[in-house]
Amino acid sequence: MVAGLAGAMQVSFMSQLGDRITVVGAVAFATLFTAVVALLLLLIFRRSFAAYRDAFDHPWWMLMGGLLGLLIIFTVTYAGNRLGVAATVGILIAGQLIMGAAIDRFGLFGSTKIPLHWPRVLGIVLLGAGAALSLKK
Description:
- By secondary structure, the protein is mainly α.
- It has helices at residues 2-21, 23-46, 50-55, 65-83, 85-106, 118-134.
- It has two domains: 1-83, no CATH class; 84-137, no CATH class.
- The protein is built from six helices and no strands.
- The two termini are 26 Å apart.
């Protein structure tokens, strides 16, 4: 719940910063700032940089989460003021739910297979409809 609240705030903050310093500038700033804070947290809690080295011992696709995060940050920065915060968040969540259901259903990326029953399909359809309706101004 807290992450969801933060996500909506992020859309608002980033889209406004993007309007002031360009979308690419805002994404670059946010990414660098996040990297510095994450590095400091790593040093505080682990007292080493070993996690950076250890990450490369795993499949390449596991390392793509950061790039996908960059895509999400770019998208919310670009879309927030153009579509509105609610519409941007709705579309983002609808996409996440659709991909999440596909990952669960087919056990993609090493995930446990979870059947896709009608209540989950209905939830995805309703959320998609809500996201589409939120585009109307």
